[in-house]
Specification:
The chain has about 190 residues and is α+β, with helices and mostly antiparallel strands. Helix content is about 15%, strand content about 35%. It has 5 helices and 10 strands, in the order H-E-E-H-E-E-E-E-H-E-E-E-H-E-H. Strands 3-4-5-6-10-9-8-7 form an 8-stranded antiparallel sheet. The protein has a two-stranded antiparallel ribbon with strand order 1-2. The two termini are about 20 Å apart.
Length: about 190
């Protein structure tokens, strides 16, 4: 199913010079990108940014998922639909302080950020996962290609951090919401 040349390159079928991949977080954390990758990019564009094939791959629900373990110990996950990025995920190697990302749904006593702090990002909605183990901060943006994108951050787990889970972020996701997938696929297909 994934026999095109860009996908073969991403999976390491074509040898590339090995260079240590040491990407800094680089992107603005609140932009709809991760390490320079964006929804809709082609497999060839991803390879150009990543500079090496992925470390692991799998196929799930008609999409190819490729993983890169970065020098920072972060794990980058890229989902491809028809050789185009449809979902990005980043698991931070070490959880980040939520205050570093400015994830504040409302100003309250538990946060060291206040309304005067420029790091505070007020465009996010905060909710709990259905199992109540993690908090999710999410916001929706319109893409220039006619579909919406969602940026999400997930807190540390209740099991790992207890009541302090709100203070740590373990994951960032950029994705096309299910309700927008037809628009996304139409924009890719032409």
């Amino acid at each position: 199913m994934y026999g095109t040349v860009p996908t073969l390159i991403l999976l390491g079928a074509i040898s590339l010079p090995s260079s240590a991949l040491s990407l800094a977080r680089g992107d603005d954390d609140h932009e709809p990108s991760i390490h320079g990758l964006r929804i809709g990019m082609s497999a060839a564009q991803v390879l150009e940014v990543m500079q090496r094939p992925g470390d692991k791959d799998e196929e799930r629900d008609g999409e190819l998922i490729i993983y890169w373990v970065l020098a920072s110990k972060d794990v980058l996950q890229v989902h491809f639909w028809k050789d185009h990025v449809s979902h990005l995920g980043l698991q931070y190697g070490a959880p980040l302080p939520a205050t570093e990302l400015g994830l504040v749904a409302q100003v309250d006593q538990r946060s060291s950020l206040d309304a005067r702090d420029p790091r505070a990002q007020y465009g996010y909605k905060e909710a709990e996962t259905s199992d109540k183990d993690r908090l999710v901060w999410s916001r929706t943006l319109s893409s220039d290609r006619g579909y919406d994108l969602q940026i999400q951050f997930l807190s540390g787990s209740r099991k790992q951090f207890g009541d302090q889970r709100r203070q740590y972020v373990q994951f960032k996701y950029v994705a096309v919401p299910k309700s927008e997938r037809k628009k996304f696929r139409k924009s890719i297909s032409g």
